[in-house]
Amino acid sequence: MAEASELEKLASREYAYGFVTPIEEEKIPKGLSEETVRLISAKKAEPPWLLEWRLKAYRRFVQLLAEEREPTWAQITYPRIDYQGMYYYAAPKQGPKLASMDEVDPELLRTYDRLGIPLLEQKRLAGVAVDAVFDSVSVATTYKAELEKQGIVFCSFSEAVQKYPELVRQYLGSVVPYADNFFAALNSAVFSDGSFAYVPKGVRCPMELSTYFRINAQETGQFERTLIVADEGASVSYLEGCTAPRRDENQLHAAVVELVALDDASIKYSTVQNWYPGDKEGRGGIYNFVTKRGACRGRRSKISWTQVETGSAITWKYPSCILQGDDSVGEFYSVAVTNNRQQADTGTKMIHIGKNTRSTIVSKGIAAGHGQQAYRGLVRIGPKAHGARNHSQCDSLLLGDKCGAHTFPYLEVKNASATVEHEATTSRIGEDQLFYCRQRGLSEEDAVSMIVNGFCKDVLRELPMEFAVEAQKLLGLSLEGSVG
Amino acid sequence: MKEALLEIEALSASAGGKPILRGLELVLRAGEVHAIMGPNGSGKSTLAGVLAGRPGIEVTGGRVRYRGEDLLALAPEERARRGVFLAFQYPVEIPGVSNNYFLKSAVNAVRQHRGEEPYDAMEFLSVVREKAALVEMPKDLLARSVNEGFSGGEKKRNEILQMLLLEPTLAVLDETDSGLDIDALRIVASGVNALRSEARAMLVITHYQRLLDHIVPDQVHVLSEGRIVHSGGKELALELEQRGYAWLEREPGRGAEAGAR
What we know:
The complex is a heterodimer. Chain A has helices spanning 4-13, 34-43, 48-66, 106-115, 119-126, 137-149, 157-163, 165-171, 182-190, 431-439, 444-455, 457-460, 465-478, and strands at residues 153-156, 195-199, 209-210, 225-230, 235-241, 252-253, 256-261, 266-273, 287-296, 302-309, 314-317, 320-323, 329-338, 343-352, 358-368, 372-381, 389-399, 404-413, 419-428. Chain A is α/β, with parallel strands linked by helices. In chain B, helix 6 (152-166) runs parallel beside helix 7. The relative contact order of chain B is 0.18. Residues 253-261 of chain B have low confidence and may be disordered. The chains are: A alpha/beta, B alpha/beta.
């Protein structure tokens, strides 16, 4: 592990570059209608097929809404969402701009300081009007040029629709169809923007693709749409998210991520999610209802999800793998933290279709305060998945006695030659462990952070280096004040 | 007379609501090594727990001063940073945290308190290697998770390694000899002896005389029913080995005052 100073450097590095973000003046009136969908599509000058697709999704969503089929099976509670009371096209951070840092929640500022985020960036994240213009275009352009040399496409979703319509059309909705689920239908109808990446045959992407190097797509809003395609023999590692807690006036976030891996391709998708979790009493905070799915379409393809979820008031998220190609591999490594009044129902689905497909699930849940969380995982072995193997490891760590952790593993095995293993543990952070650390001179908070990081090590080591360092620091911060 | 590092006056404490210590008196001066012996349940580990600030032990009366300061008012980590070290009877496992990282964090927390520069990774490596050699600690134990899968002897050696690294002013060894074979006992004792100095004091809690063959104490105290009932020189340990504790329990209070003060 790195020294504190290095940590700060790394944590602040991401925020050393900002983006020019002109404030969106236009706003479509509140509420969801066919007109809204048409307007969004028109503003983006989308081709007719995409508008049609959005409209089909819209009709599906309206139908689901009318039938009151918003999912209720998750172990979460929240007040009914008024889907007609929201804006569906507006700059995501259209909340009132604050005049100065004095108006920002001091708690938020303290966290920014602890993460070592530069003042200017703090202002931007907190929604304070910033006079200075960030100039990072040159940095981003350098990366972009290098990627282009290899034929790698990496741009905002809107840009991809204009420049690579055939690729988008071929793969959009091919993993998560517009009618897949309630929130996916909503996203498909009104998605604002997101990322698109295509790595051509045989190309190993030479750098981690991060949303951060993407020009003009910093603010993707509440309905983000991401599509990543790795062609035969290609490989790519994608980083999503940031460690700074973001203030956002939009409470509902419903993103969709689709990954496609063809023969011998591999995609590694890493997320650090730290959206505003609400205050200690559970007021405010983001509802994060995300559909993430990857299709291992080709033989020997591999998709790996790694996530560190510390933010949001509610997290509803099950990054999944469809293991279609023979000998394909799916992985899911997850750390979820719920503190104060946060709720998380998260896990994965591993759908084994091809022969000798393998999947690994490592889920580490940490609950503190009044935090509640559930691991919900499905392992399905289809009738043709001869020799399929799955190993699941789900561990929960409780801090204090007012939090809760629950495990819901679902197994469906339709092929007798498959091997499926599931291990689960729940432990309370030991008073004796804490005392041992403190007797050696460590503060209680450092001790908790150390014990928690140790607990999550199997997941953290799957993250790219600098992300891992940030995540470690974030875990400590998220749990501050949760003991004693 | 040397500085009194630790002064315990009329100390009473209970654990889980049950009174364990009942008016214990003890003074440790710089440069001294005292042994505490006594039958099971006499309060030896509770005494160690009170000194280190173990949760679950309630002090119900008396005072403990460490270098003139009220020790009981300090949090466990504050005591540790001021030089109070407890070698645990049952060292705790911390999965996923490398021993090396744990040791470095502890040493740097204490160094920072003393106003010293924290060690960087390279400096620490050379320091820890030197100390690890003293307790004949295999290198791979530094890379492994703290105490996880360590044998009983390895755990105890790890405790002594931590003590050598932290260089405490007051070291309390809680039954460090339990479960050790004779070689491990010799290694542990040589680690402890390496730290003996005119500036430090040690409190060695043990069940058996054999540890005191290797760590020769200045004084031996017998603890019974929560107070010191007898004190003497190092010969007392041998006498206890031969005669047991029963003869002392029949004569409570004999020599306690004279010996302890």
